[in-house]
Amino acid sequence: MRIPLVAGNWKMYKTISEARLLVSELVPGIQAVAGVDRVLCPPFTALLAVRALLEGTEIGLGAQNMHWELSGAYTGEVSATMLAEICSYVIIGHSERRAYFGETDESVNRKVQVALEHNLTPIVCVGETLEENESGRTSEIVSRQIKSGLDRLDLGSNNIPAKVAPVVVAYEPVWAIGTGRAATAIGANAVIAEVIRPALSDLYGDEFAQSVRVLYGGSVKGENAAEFFAQPDIDGALVGGASLKASDFTAIVQAASI
Fold first, then answer.
1. Which residues are catalytic?
2. pLDDT for residue 161 is more than 60
C-alpha cells in the first residue's frame, strides 16, 4: 500500500530566520498527523537550519535541485554527496528548472541515477505546458518525460530496480503551477493512471509501476487537496505557494491522512 506523501517546495523564498519561524509554526501541526510522509524542501541556504529544527521529528528534509557530478569546477552547483549529509530527498526536473535553466530529460536522468546511488529519494517532476495540453499532446509529453527521465536505472532481482523503490514522481501540469488554475482531480488521476503508470510499467514492469508514489502538483490548496487525495492513483502532493503558510500546508497534510 502506497503511503501518502506531501512535500513542500519553498522555491526561492525564506531567509534563514524566516525559515526557522515557518518551521516552528509548521512542526506542531504536521508532526501530529499520522499515516502521511511529510517533507520540507527549503532553499539550500536554509537546509542546515531547518534540519536542526526537524531533529527528533518524523518530518523529512529535501533539496530543490542537484548536479549529476559529485565534484568539480561547477560554480554555484551542489552535489549528491553534499546533500546526502544533510537531507533524504531531492526535487529533480521541476518545470521551472526545465523552463529557466535548460533542464532536459537527459539531465534529469543523470541526476536521478546519481541521487539513487547516494541514497537520496528523487522527486521527479513531469508535466505538459498549456500549449501541449490544448493540442492533445499530454500523453506524448508526459510519457516521454517518464521514460527518458527514469531510463537505464540499475535492475535488481525479478527485474525490479534495486535502488528505485524510493523514487517519487510528481505530475505537475505546467499550466497549473502558481496560476491558481488547478487541474481537475479526475483529470489529474487519469493522466497518472493512463499515462504515468503505464510508462513506468513499460520501463520496469507493473509491480514497480504500482509501487511508485505519484503526487499531484499545481495550485494545491487546503480547500481542494481532499478532492485530489480521494483519487485512487494520486498519492499526495508537491505543494508550492501553500507550503509557505503553516495553516495552509497543515490543512493539506491533514487532508492526505483522511
1. 94, 172
2. no
